[in-house]
Amino acid sequence: MGRRLEELLGPIYALNLPYIEGALRGEPQLFEREIPDPKGGPPRHSQAHYVPDIVDGVVRGFSVLVADITARKRTEDALRRATGRLELLAKHDALTGLPNRTVLADRLERAIALNTRYGLSCAVLFVDLDGFKSVNDTYGHAAGDAVLRLVAIRLQKAVRQSDTVSRLGGDEFIVLLSRLNDHAGAEETARHILAALTQEAFKLGEAQVELTCSIGVATFPEHGTTADQLAASADAAMYRAKRSGKNRFAVAEASVTSIV
Hints:
The protein is an alpha+beta fold. 44% of the residues lie in helices and 30% in strands. A hairpin with an 8-residue loop joins strand 1 and strand 2 (44-55).
């Protein structure tokens, strides 16, 4: 054509230059390139293959084969997004987006190992909403789901970023306080959670729903040295809180403390 490659390729000449030089050394080149849409639409994608033309050991030039792979790239991107969503669902509760049992168990095991090493403490708080069935019966399950999502938000705000709030199912939640200096920190967090869930009604359109909760508190290593032991201790303490009148927390093997 009597034209220089720089004229033909325009702005991408500098980007392609390393591949051009490789092909002129007799080395086949295969690479992909994103091509911006001048009109602002989605970019297109190409795959270029530079094939050296070698005669008697001398490179006379190279052939360029270009394929439009936009459809393939978009399919790959869609698959990556779908895979990411599946991974998210595998580790999180579908309703609230909170970490599920699997993630909680892993974090609790790590917290126990870490606190064993450094002589610190961690705690498990078992949170169960009081009389939640009446919300579903009165307003319907869709409204009940909306309340559970709001509960999840309030629980997350009531704890530290380093802590974990997990939904077990139904109206049951577990809070892992990953590192504590003493038991007082766990009890203080339980008070924060009680206040967060009870001081302000949950709004459902024009309706307002008032909820309370019962909380069981178990600390490591006093109430268990394994994840299962801590969860069982917190569960038993939560039921003791319910039997004692609800709207309060109980510490494993300790007396119930009412909300103030």
